[in-house]
Specification:
The complex is a heterodimer of chains A (about 160) and B (about 250). By secondary structure, chain A is mostly helical. Chain A has two domains: about 90 residues, Rna Polymerase Sigma Factor, Chain: A (Orthogonal Bundle), CATH 1.10.1740; about 70 residues, Winged helix-like DNA-binding domain superfamily/Winged helix DNA-binding domain (Arc Repressor Mutant, subunit A). The longest helix of chain B is centred in the N-terminal third of the chain and has 50 residues. Chain B has two domains: about 50 residues; about 180 residues, no CATH class. Chain B has a six-stranded mixed β-sheet with strand order 3-2-1-4-5-6, with helices on both faces. The N and C termini of chain B lie far apart (about 125 Å). The chains are: A mainly alpha (about 160), B alpha+beta (about 250). At the A-B interface, helix 1, helix 2, helix 6 and helix 7 of A face helix 1 and helix 2 of B.
Chain lengths: ~160, ~250
Amino acid sequence: MRSEPDVNHAIEKYADMVRHVCFYHLKNHSDAEDVFQNVFLKYMLHDKPFNDDEHEKAWLLRVTINSCKDYLNDFFRRNKVPLETLNEIEAEIPDEHKEVLEAVLSLPAKYKDVIYLYYYEGYKADEIGKILGKKENTVYSLLSRGRKMLKEKLGGEDIDR
Amino acid sequence: MTDKIHNAFDNIKADDQLKESTKQFLLSKRKSKTILANYILFQKKFAIACLILVFVTGIKGYLWIQSPVSYISIDVNPSIELALNCFDKVISVTAYNSEGEEILKSLSLKGKLYTTAIDEIVESQIMDTYITDESELIFTIAADKAKESSISTKVKRCCEHSGHNSQSISTDTSIVIQAHNHGLSLGKYYVYLQLVQYDNTVTIDDCRNMSMSELHDLIAGYEHSSEHMHSDENSTDNGCTSEHEHNHTH
């Protein structure tokens, strides 16, 4: 079990990243909080050392994405009426960003991950493949389709990096 | 556009309340994990202690069952000694001369009740060649007070049942070690102690090579001459630890 200072340091360092993944996958703040806490619980119980910060970050991303998927696959949660995640924090987000976030949230789950990891976290296709357990070519395909969908939703605006 | 996605996500933050509630959640989990770990550790220690207890009890029990508490020596010329545990079962059989070894070759007596063992020895074909009208079948019993009476009674029954010229003698367990140290069966050593009262030139080796009837004849001879010499002294303290004797001559 990792020490309390180690875990608190990780919370401060990766909280926003974990929150982002929870935000675009889950349907409300309460679910996001559950997964958020469970991700750091897994981190606390994970005894194996990480090679470096990048390894630690990739591990947390993978665990967060898988935790979100597991959470959504739960039978009772799957049948719950989805709440508008964005509505819960609408007041906090300036209007100029709301449209982009709505477009990302409307994508199917498999596209959201690659779009977020590619455009926000700045990972390359092969690195995304390792995190998501997918082939590099599959990541390229998902990126291409996701990009096309976003472009349509955002009125034809090109989003190439 | 890339900047737009970046800037849009920058608005989504893990607030301090979420971080704090997560820290509290992990702290409570850490405590319960520690309690659980301590409980599991306690259970493991308890299980190991129980195993050790069972192991030690088992070993002690086995040693207790395998500890001799009574001895029955069967002497004609063949000298055989049975060591019995607290359940009156034979835990070891020792032959003190070649004749005894010959008898034991064909018998398996360990684990049997002493009455069964005695019957098997007395009724064995080889023993039959040694038990004649002139020979004497002597049972010498060494047991603690609690056991002595019942063993003595049952051995007497065996004597009667065998129909041979037999005799049972009870003594205490203190001479057993002395007998073994001298390489003699309990019965022969008991007779040697009697004999040495009359003739201190008699050695243990002399006794080892003589049959019980020969030894008893010698004692009888000494007793007879002693009666003549000291007609007023008709009781002799033989100095050994004999408590009582029972004669069953048929």
